Structure formats: C-alpha cells, structure tokens
Amino acid sequence: MNEQTKESLLSHYAMTMTYVKDLEQISEEAWRTSYAEGKWTIAEIIGHLSPWDRFMVAERIPYLLAGEPFRVAPDSQAVNEEAAKMSREQQRILTIDEFLVSRDLLSRAVELIPEERLQDKVVVKDKELTIGQFLGAMTQHDLHHMEQINQVIG
After folding, report:
1. Is 72 left (phi over 0), alpha (psi -120 to 50) or beta?
2. Cβ–Cβ contacts within 10 Å for residue 86, how many?
3. Taking the CB of residue 57, how many other CB atoms lie within 10 A of it?
4. What is the pLDDT of residues 71-80, one digit of tens each?
5. What is the pTM of this model?
6. pLDDT of residue 2
7. What angle do CA 14, 16, 21 make, to 5 degrees?
8. Which of 16, 17, 83, 115 could anchor a disulfide with 48, C-beta 3.0 to 4.6 Å?
9. Where are the alpha helices (DSSP H) in 90-130?
10. What is the rounded distance in angstroms from the CA atom of residue 95 to the CA atom of residue 17?
11. What's the mean pLDDT in 139-148?
C-alpha cells in the first residue's frame, strides 16, 4: 500500500481542488454525462466525494490519532446513492463548492497531524497499516475517479 507523507497528501488535496474547480469550465452536457453506459456522471462522481471527506474528518482521523476503534461503520452504498441523487438535482456550482469546502476541511485536518504520526500503526478491518497508508488509500480513490472523468472530458 502506498505510504504518504503529509506534503504528498496536502499536494494531492490541492491538486484535486484545482481539478474540480476547472470542471466549472466544461459544458453542462459533459457535466451530466456518464463515463460509461450505466455508470455515474461527472456530477455524481464529484458529488459523492464531499460526504466522504467530511466522514474522514469527523469519524476517522480523530479515532486513528487516538488509537481507538471506529465508532461508525458507514453504509457506503446509501451514502453514495444519496450523494449521487443530490448532485443530479442541484446546480453544478453547488456540487463543486461543496467539494471545495469539504476537501479544504480534510486538508486542514491532515495539516494538523504531526508528520511522525503518519507512521503510527493502526488496524482497520483486521489489516495493519499506517495512518499515512490509510489516508493514501483515499488519494487512490480520487485518482480512480479522475481517470473516469477524463474519459468524458479527454
């Protein structure tokens, strides 16, 4: 699993914020286009990232740093479906702004983590990894979705 430094995480967050802000420039048609038959639109992809950023800040980072088990096991499908529904219905600028706010919140939370704490070992779903690796897995999730978006916008 990919080990992350604080600098690499913060750089990734800044890059994703610029990438999503640039989606203001694509056509409304492209914004509402899915990357493949029966798959999510760009709007739905971006819309589902915000609740996960907020979830990381509220329900993952504090527990990782405290060395405590997670309190909440999310219903990923329900969270994703609700976020996708919301982003289908709301204006693009709201979806983008929501992402920028939630990603900035995540970035600020990670900025407050002392660099050495990223090496702390944690157990997540019976798997031992570092806090840096856990946070790095989320960056891989972003990159996966950016590849999907690039299939639509080139």
Report:
1. beta
2. 18
3. 17
4. 888 899 999 9
5. 0.93
6. 66
7. 95
8. 83
9. 92-111
10. 12
11. 96
